[in-house]
Write a structure and sequence with these properties.
With 144 residues, the chain is α/β, with parallel strands linked by helices. Helices cover 38% and strands 15% of the residues. Bound molecules: 1,3,4-trihydroxy-5-OXO-cyclohexanecarboxylic acid (DQA).
């Protein structure tokens, strides 16, 4: 399973902890790995680069691997990322959009997600647990 993280999420832990909590991506990866069903490998990645993130989604489109995606600020304006997510989901793949915070309860510009309309589902507002809820949702879908 791919767990893809967009810009500035490499700074989790110290970045606005009152909004995003104190866990960094290594801690989130640790919890995901502990909760993953047997045989499911967690491949967590982060980039500040839109092109790299799009390349990883193309990889998921080809492999059929499910994706947990925190698009960070790209959520709000990247049509290129939206198209890459659609490429995965319209081919039958799973992409769960996650956010640590609840963007709908924050500044106006965060109320728009250009990703949600093509994602399989969205989990937001539970801090680092948003990732674990997304993992659970993907595992349940896989069980059918
Ligand atoms: C975020 C919410 C976005 O609005 C913001 O730009 C982020 C993080 C979240 O996880 O709450 O970088 O995706």
């Amino acid at each position: 399973m791919l767990v893809l993280n967009g810009p500035n999420l490499g700074r989790l832990g110290s970045r606005e902890p009152e909004v995003y909590g104190t866990q960094d991506l290594a801690a989130i990866e640790h919890h995901l790995t502990a909760q993953a069903p047997n045989g499911v490998e967690i491949d967590l990645r982060q980039t500040d680069d839109e092109a790299e993130l799009i390349g990883w989604l193309h990889e998921a489109a080809d492999s059929g691997d499910p994706v947990i995606l925190n698009p960070a600020a790209f959520t709000h304006y990247s049509y290129a990322l939206r198209d890459a997510v659609a490429l995965v989901t319209r081919a039958g793949g799973t992409v769960v959009e996650v956010h640590l915070s609840n963007p709908s309860a924050r500044e106006e510009f965060r109320h728009t997600s250009v990703i949600s309309g093509v994602a399989t589902g969205v989990v937001a507002g539970f801090g680092a647990d948003s990732y674990l809820v997304a993992l659970d949702a993907i595992a349940r879908r896989a069980r059918g």
